[in-house]
Structure formats: structure tokens, C-alpha cells
């Protein structure tokens, strides 16, 4: 999905670059270029893994079971568990 977004930004940048004689197009091209740069910065420091919800739910359940049986889990697994919980919260916000 992020690769598709980046490709779309690049196509917009190319399209706008071809019409750069218009001041509006120049500004839009600069915005697209900055968006690509920011996306690249974010992608450089973050690992995105496409995991279906069933697998993520199973992993979260197993991490919780490990924590219950061992009373603590290693910090890396705790951060992974927290990231999974945050992803579920974002994907399924509470009803207002």
C-alpha cells in the first residue's frame, strides 16, 4: 500500500513537472516532492509487515499467554504486543 502511494506521488510529481510553467503546478510539485521525501524518511526507520488480522490476533493472544505463564515477557516482545494492540485500536476505533 505504501509503495502504491509512493508510486502515485511520483506520477503526480512527473505530471506536475510537465506543467511547471504554471505557478500552481510548481507549488503542487514541490508539495509532492516533500511528501515523497517524508514518506521515504518514515519508511527508512519503520518496518511495515502486512499481516492478516487472524494472524495478528493469534500472535497477540500467544504473547498474552506467554506473559501470563512467565509473569513477564522480554521487552522486545512487549513492544511488539503493544504495537499489535495499537494497530487493532486504530483499525477498530470504539463507537461514539
What's a concise summary of this model?
By secondary structure, the protein is mainly alpha-helical. It contains 4 helices and no strands. The longest helix has 23 residues.
**Number of strand segments:** 0
Largest sheet: none
- The string of secondary-structure elements, in order, is HHHH
Question: How far apart lie the N and C ends?
Answer: 28 Å
Mean pLDDT: 81
What's the Cα radius of gyration?
20 Å
Put simply, the count of helices is 4
**Count of separate structural domains:** 2
Oligomer: single chain
Low-confidence region ranges: none
Q: What structural category do the secondary elements indicate?
A: mainly alpha
Shape: elongated
Q: Level of helix content?
A: over 70%
Strand fraction: under 5%
Molecular structure report:
- By secondary structure, the protein is mainly alpha-helical.
- The protein folds into two domains: 2-45; 53-91, no CATH class.
- The protein is built from four helices and no strands.
- The chain has helices at 2-18, 23-45, 53-70, 75-91.
- It starts with a helix and ends in a 5-residue tail after the last helix.
Amino acid at each position: 500500500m505504501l509503495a502504491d502511494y509512493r508510486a502515485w506521488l511520483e506520477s503526480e510529481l512527473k505530471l506536475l513537472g510537465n506543467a511547471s510553467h504554471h505557478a500552481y503546478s510548481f507549488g503542487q510539485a514541490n508539495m509532492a516532492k516533500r511528501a515523497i521525501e517524508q514518506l521515504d524518511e518514515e519508511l527508512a526507520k519503520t518496518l511495515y509487515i502486512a499481516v492478516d488480522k487472524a494472524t495478528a490476533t493469534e500472535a497477540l493472544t500467544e504473547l498474552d499467554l506467554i506473559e501470563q505463564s512467565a509473569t513477564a515477557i522480554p521487552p522486545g516482545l512487549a513492544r511488539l504486543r503493544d504495537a499489535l494492540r495499537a494497530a487493532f485500536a486504530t483499525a477498530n476505533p470504539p463507537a461514539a
